[in-house]
Specification:
CATH class of the domain at 91-392: Alpha Beta
CATH architecture of the domain at 91-392: 3-Layer(aba) Sandwich
Strand content: 5-15%
Structural class: alpha/beta
Bound molecules: thiamine diphosphate, magnesium ion
Helix content: 25-40%
Strand order of the largest sheet: 3-4-5-9-8
Oligomer: single chain
Number of strands: 9
Shape: globular
CATH superfamily of the domain at 91-392: Thiamin diphosphate (ThDP)-binding fold, Pyr/PP domains
Order of helices and strands: EEHHEHHHEHEEEHEHEHHHH
CATH topology of the domain at 91-392: Rossmann fold
Number of helices: 12
Distance between the termini: 39 Å
Radius of gyration: 24 Å
Length: about 425
């Protein structure tokens, strides 16, 4: 008598081979070598290393200094043509990137005018990663930005004045003056989970969002970001592993920007590329040039599609450079100057502009000037709105601190959770035995 195979549900985690496991039809490899591949879409592979030097000053005090060695004069690579984006979409992403950049310039000025409460964070050099990734999401998908993804917020429908008012702690800001940076979300309209400062914690939270949607019958993509420093945390491992075994549609961007505060990536991890970690989780990993909006979009689009098909998470390593200090208080004097010079030539906006105007000729010089002017006008209007918003009244401080009736009603968004009807007979599980 043949063994009856249990039917597996299409969305369950148990019906997929482990990463590298061959299907029953595949012939075993003669040498039993495992082979995995990490597609790398970059058109250049920067080749340099940062080394730490300890130097003593005249008084014998030790100081840490970083030096960079390698090929810092390599030619700037072209933008890779997108497999999916058309002319109109490329121009739209370019506009979001400009808006992202100009909003941050305005923020820096507001800070210098003493109008900002606390610090300001920048995503300079990372605009392609923030904007082109968020652009790949469908309206129903979810996202959770980190501090450098202010561009993702714009793409997902927040106004530049929302971020500006937030930094100025204004009454009309998303947190109504209760937070000075980015700790706000929108679970009603824009499907945004608020950033969590503890690095990595957003990953299991977003896996949970995907699980919740699946229980309600939907395979959604849930996108979030983690830095090359933040990926070292234990919760990053736990979150990705959970998403992997549960086949949840996590789209994780690892923002490999070479620094975590003042720690160079050489002192952060030992493997060559962080995308390799995907092999250990048993999920696809890809590498893109994070300064090339087309590469970022294509990888995000494919990962989002996988998520919608219920095929589980993807790890996308976006290689780029944090072009400012950690925040406005950090002059980044520890970064060797030649590194900045190398990456300045790879500015994501300047290169995309060159691609659209001179290579593709999708924008004339005049259209480009008009587009830039329209972004500047928009930012100026947003800045005016933000500056003119009042500060919160002292009496309002006591409101919105604790849950008031109905203010945080959490209800299924996509339908009633699909749960099986229980059987009348009680089945004693192993856990139940242990807990006795
Ligand atoms: C668990 C945890 N440890 C430390 C910190 C403090 N901290 C905030 S940002 C940061 C550096 C992050 O670097 P990276 O992840 O590379 O992101 P980047 O700033 O380069 O975008 C650190 C150490 C934190 N917020 N959470
Ligand atoms: Mg970093």
């Amino acid at each position: 008598m043949g063994i009856r195979k249990a039917k597996s549900k299409p969305t369950s985690n148990g019906n997929r081979p482990r990463n590298g496991a061959s299907s029953s039809k595949a012939k075993p490899n003669a040498t039993n070598l495992r082979t995995y591949s990490i597609p790398d879409y970059r058109l250049e592979h920067p080749n340099f290393t940062v080394r730490q030097r300890i130097e003593k000053d005249r008084l014998g005090h030790e100081h840490v200094r970083y030096e960079v060695e390698g090929d810092l004069n390599a030619p700037v690579p072209p933008i890779r043509d997108s497999k999916y984006l058309d002319k109109k979409q490329c121009i739209e992403i370019y506009r979001w990137m400009l808006l992202n950049r100009k909003m941050e310039v305005a923020l820096e000025n507001l800070y210098k005018q003493g109008k900002v409460v606390g610090g300001v964070y920048f995503g300079l050099g990372q605009e392609a990663c923030s904007c082109a990734s968020a652009y790949a999401l469908d309206e129903d998908d979810w996202f959770a930005p980190m501090i450098r993804n202010q561009g993702s917020l714009l793409v997902r429908g927040f106004a530049a004045s929302d971020t500006m008012m937030q930094y100025m702690a204004k009454a009309d800001s998303p947190t109504k003056g209760r937070d000075g940076t980015s700790h706000f979300g929108d679970i009603e309209r824009r499907n945004m989970v608020s950033p969590i400062s503890m690095l990595g914690d957003l990953i299991p939270v977003m896996a949970g969002v995907a699980l919740g949607a699946r229980l309600q019958g939907r395979n959604l993509a849930v996108m979030t970001y983690i830095g090359d420093g933040g990926q070292s945390t234990g919760v990053t491992y736990e979150g990705i592993n959970f998403a992997a075994v549960q086949n949840l549609g996590l789209v994780l961007f690892v923002e490999s920007n070479l620094w975590a505060y003042s720690t160079p990536s050489e002192l952060q991890y030992r493997c060559k590329d962080l995308a390799e970690r995907a092999i250990g989780y048993g999920i696809p990993g890809v590498i893109v040039d994070g300064t090339d909006a087309c590469q970022v979009y294509d990888a995000a689009h494919e990962a989002v599609d996988r998520a919608h098909r219920g095929e589980g998470p993807t790890l996308i390593e976006a290689k780029m450079m944090r072009m400012k200090g950690h925040a406005i208080h950090d002059a980044a004097s520890y970064v060797p100057k030649p590194m900045f010079e190398f990456w300045k030539k790879r500015d994501p906006i300047a290169r995309f502009e060159n691609y659209l105007v001179r290579e593709k000729k999708w924008l004339t010089a005049k259209e480009n000037e008009e587009l830039i002017a329209s972004v500047e006008t928009e930012i100026e209007a947003e800045r005016e709105t933000a500056v003119n918003s009042p500060m919160p009244t002292p009496e309002s401080a006591e409101g919105g601190v604790y849950c008031e009736d109905g203010c945080h009603e959490i209800k299924p968004k996509y339908g009633a959770p699909k749960v099986k009807k229980g059987t009348s007979t009680f089945k004693q599980t192993e856990a139940a035995v242990h807990l006795r």
